[in-house]
Amino acid sequence: MQIEVLKSKLHCVRVTEANLNYMGSITIDEDLMDAVGIIAGERVYIVNNNNGERFDTYVIKGERGSGCICLNGAAARKVQVGDIVIIMAYATITPEEARTFQPQIVFPDQNTNKIVR
């Protein structure tokens, strides 16, 4: 048997852009992606703390160090620039692996989306 567990979480990042005319996805600063082990093309789940929207899409790399969190395409309708969102990715593992697995969670600065050490 396999179960889904939280693998990666960017907790409370600020949306910097919403681009309705892009073909779809979320653009995330590559520094943030690296910090939680999210890769380009990976499916992520997004929760908007401002309006309660919950949706999923795939990731594309944003400029390293930019703090970019940009919702693209239809997902852009689910957010406003300045909204606070939580971005999560899950992994499918065995229950035995899950007992000791630790997700990568980062709490970036909410004003700059920079990693606070």
What topology does this entry show?
Layout: E1 3-14, E2 17-19, E3 25-29, H1 30-36, E4 43-48, E5 54-62, E6 69-72, E7 84-93, H2 95-98, E8 104-106
Parallel strand pairs: 1-8, 2-6, 3-5
Antiparallel strand pairs: 1-7, 3-6, 4-5, 4-7
Sum this structure up briefly:
This protein has 117 residues and is mainly beta. It is built from two helices and eight strands.
What gyration radius follows from the Cα positions, in whole Å? 14 Å
Measured distance between first and last alpha carbons: 37 Å
**Helix amount:** under 10%
Uncertain regions spanning at least 5 consecutive residues: none
Q: Which sequence of SSEs, written as H and E, runs from N to C?
A: EEEHEEEEHE
The quaternary structure here is single chain
Mean pLDDT across all amino acids: 96
The major β-sheet equals: 8 strands, mixed
Query: What is the count of β-strands?
Result: 8
The general outline is globular
Strand content: 35-45%
| CATH-defined architecture | Beta Barrel
Structural class category? mainly beta
Strand order of the largest sheet: 2-6-3-5-4-7-1-8
According to CATH, what is the topology?
Barwin-like endoglucanases
Number of domains: 1
Please report the first level of CATH classification, the CATH class: Mainly Beta
Q: Please count the helical segments.
A: 2
Question: What do these coordinates show?
Answer:
- There is one protein chain.
- The protein has helices at about 30-35, 95-100, and strands at about 5-15, 15-20, 25-30, 45-50, 55-60, 70, 85-95, 105.
- It is mainly beta.
- The model has no long low-confidence stretch (mean pLDDT about 95).
- An 8-stranded mixed beta sheet has the order 2-6-3-5-4-7-1-8.
- It has one domain (about 5-95): Barwin-like endoglucanases, CATH 2.40.40.
- The longest helix has 7 residues, at about 30-35.
- β4 and β5 form a beta hairpin.
- About 30% of the residues are buried.
- The protein is about 10% helix and about 45% strand.
- It is globular and about 40 Å long.
- It has 2 helices and 8 strands, in the order βββαββββαβ.
